[in-house]
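name: query_chain
kind: protein
chains: 1
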Amino acid sequence: MAAEVQTPVGACNPAPNPGGRIVKRALLWVVALAALLFAGTPFVFMIVTALKSQGEFLSNMWGMPQGLHLENFRQVLEGGFARYLLNTALVSAAAVILTLLAASLAAYPLARFRFRLGRPIFLLFLAGAMIPVHVTLIPTFILSRDIGLYDTRWALLGPYIGFNLPLAIFILTEFMRQVPAELEEAALVDGASSWERFSRIMLPLTVPAMSTVGIYSFIFVWNEFIFALVLISSPENMTMPLGLMQFYGQYQINVPGIMAALTLGAFPVIALYLAAQERVVAGLVAGALKG
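structure:
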């Protein structure tokens, strides 16, 4: 009989390399810290400058403030910035709600029903994402003026919803396609209508995707400038990005005051994203996986 060949223990399973894992983890920490410094430095500069006086900023732009000059925030709020924030919050909330409603109603039949024009309609929605914003400025201005919405906050809703819909419909459609069809089939056997299957089954299951769409739509609307510049002229109707222009003087600029306004304007978006970041990531990951 041929002698059995003994395979050394551990020949096929090499010993773990703890040194390699430590180096890899250290490199990941270095990259993460570098990304944090790159992304966080502007925010730190903004907050530190907002706490300076104008004299401190002019004498030492990069230095730390000698004291907490909270009067910058008080002057900004008394200068009408609170009204700009309120206008932006109202327009953003209305635009996000209407975008989610329209996108979910469009995505459900595209994802769950099979009809001849389903694919062309879906591609037509996606084609809307390739339309440059500046091409629509003049037609949007003329349309808003003709229907009597010019220089009102609600004139912004049409453009905001229209430019948010392509991405919203794409995300929700792909997410709804991953929902098991057996859930709706069971509800259909129980006599549920299409609306009941949509409202009671599909909508609760698409909360992660809806959160993702809502966050991205909110950030877009909150920071949007060009449509507000074209469609709004009265200070009482201005949104926050457009209202920031009112803090620029003809011969001088109060940089700490502007930084205080930027801090107040950025805080709601940052707080909302930090509170909902897990839902945003869950919506993106779940929409990319096969059910």
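note: The first helix runs from residue 18 to 50.
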